[in-house]
Amino acid sequence: MTKKLDIAIIEIPKYRRHAGRNKKLDTWVKFIDKPEEIIMREVEENEGLKEAQELLEQISLDEHEQELAFKRELYEMDKKAIKAAGYYEGLEEGIQKEKIEIAKNMYKKGISIATIIECTGLTKEEIEKLK
Questions:
Q1: What is the full per-residue pLDDT of the chain (131 aa) written as tens digits?
Q2: Listed residue (109, 118, 113) closest to 129, CA to CA
Q3: Domain residue limits, the chain
Q4: Residue 29: what pLDDT?
Q5: What are phi and psi of 95, to 5 degrees?
Q6: What are the DSSP calls for 51-103, one per residue?
């Protein structure tokens, strides 16, 4: 991306097993996991952490900001749920269409209905509609 941005993905439970190797990273992980346990000295030593804590305090104190954050989170969860539902519905529809197409081709080649049922999982009625 840029030289000014580092992104790290940290699995906190795994990180805890290896904590102590990088004091700055340990402090950030601690802040993310349990911000109330951060010591003032740690905040003063890290400007970015200080900004993050101030923002967290501001959001925590303002009920309106809390409500907005909650609504943003709900919106993101709804978006994911809608996308997942549409994806799987579309996937199922596509699979069904493919089965029907295969069944049509098999029927044209003179393959028995019993074999078509066995291969595609379609019902006898669905196959007879294809005639």
A1: 567 777 778 788 877 777 777 777 777 777 777 777 777 777 777 778 778 878 877 777 778 877 888 898 899 998 888 887 777 778 888 899 999 999 999 988 999 989 999 999 999 888 888 87
A2: 113
A3: 1-61, 63-131
A4: 76
A5: -65, -45
A6: HHHHHHHHHHH-HHHHHHHHHHHHHHHHHHHHHHHHHHHHHHHHHHHHHHHHH
Q: Which residue has the tokens 């669905």?
A: 126
CA 96 to CA 68: how far, in whole Å?
42
Percentage helix, strand, coil, to 5, in the chain? 75, 0, 25
Q: How far apart are CA 92 and CA 90, in angstroms?
A: 5
Q: Which residue has the tokens 């925590």?
A: 60
* Rounded-to-integer distance, Cα 113 and Cα 103, Å: 9
Angle at 119 between CA 113 and CA 123, to 5 degrees: 55
